[in-house]
Amino acid sequence: MEIFQATIEDLEGMSNLFNLYRIFYQQESDIEGAKTYIKKRLVNEDSVIFVVRDREVYVGFTQLYPTFSSVSMKRTWILNDLYVDKTARKKGVGEMLLQKAKDYAIETGAKSISLSTAIDNYAAQRLYEKSGYTKDSQFYQYELNLI
């Protein structure tokens, strides 16, 4: 297995994984929408996507979005998406992606990586905690839904 930063050449494989990720979160399959979304992220360079490929098959990805901490005056990253295909689960792909995200954050001088996951996504919670992530006990997370 190899892990690397996705480029426009990875659009097809990446779009298929992204579509499966959205389906996991109870969204309708929309491969063309997934392709358009991922293409915009890659072309505009407004996110960083790391993918894992096993031979020629894309088996996992994580997507990071940049943001900043005003208090620390440093860059931070939001690990917005992490997905491993069913066929590759329990093979270390998730750990590979988290380690690559951590290495990249360190390389870019970031203060931290933050993420959110579903309350009932116990497998992801175990993976994150095993990788050193801790639950936030100081702040509540709020969201204003505009749609």
From TrEMBL:
| Record domain N-acetyltransferase: where | 1-147
Q: Which InterPro entries match?
A: Acyl_CoA_acyltransferase, GNAT_dom
Q: What is this protein called?
A: GNAT family N-acetyltransferase
Q: Lineage from the top down? A: Bacteria, Bacillati, Bacillota, Bacilli, Bacillales
